[in-house]
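Entry under discussion copied across for reference:
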Amino acid sequence: MSLVGASAIQFAVVREDATIECAIARELERRSALLVASGGCTALALASACPGLAQTLVDPNPAQLELVERKASLLADPDIPPSRFGVGADEPNALHECGNFEWLFRLLRQVLDLFVVAPSERARRFEIDEDWDDVFDTPYWPRAFELVFSEGMLVTMFGPAAIQHATPGSYPEYFRGRIEAALRRDDRSSNPYLHHLLLGRYSERPASWPEYLRRRSDFPAVFAPEVVHGTLLDVRSFEPFDFVGLSNVMDWMDDASCTELAKRLADELEPGAAVLWRQLNDPRDLIGRFEAAFEFDSERDTRLLARERSAFYDAVHLGRRR
């Protein structure tokens, strides 16, 4: 008997809009960044956009760190075609599809294929920028999200920590709402995150590629970040960094761990250092754990969220150490 097992890689890509990190690093003239490795897309984009930025990548999963290294090696080789990164190609085992989360999207596409809208029709709508409201109104559209983003599936894939702070049973409606909102935006047809999610590939138009592919011509011949194999709390000291990207890791952390992380960042970062994080279906006031030592701007956070094209987050926060 041949059984199919889960991938060692949880996230083949970073579902976070790296244009945000690139803009912050440039505008604030950052010199040293600590980032969650995940699928590596943000780190690779920053390597091109900010070549003087020293990077340290942290991840408890060695498979994620190895994936970043592999991507960097292929990205630096001009003979490797964009199709290896998912441009124009929907391949289940390709670099952009090799994680468990990506297989969850593949399952969503299969349900859509059978009950809602054919792959060719989804591609056509992106090509001619047609609206999706009639798709949203079909009876099986919400059922697809209920099947794929059920608590049972998410807990099996990521463990109970991934959904611990959300309202029970809220994930299908949450993901459906975020994706519908992205499909109603003016930039929907050039959004690489929507292409990946609903087509399983990226557009052949370079302007619609994820940031690290758009900036490939500027990618360094050698990309050798420092690596921490562990969690954010395993980082020995945050003092060397003037930019810390927390991804949405705090969504996975309990209250005590979030408080410990906020205290360490407050104690160890120098004045002016920036901390950026996103929140996904986590209603907690995480700013409250930081604001005694960090300055926040609610209008700036609103602008950052409006800029975030990944279709997943309901909050983006940037704090500056006082």
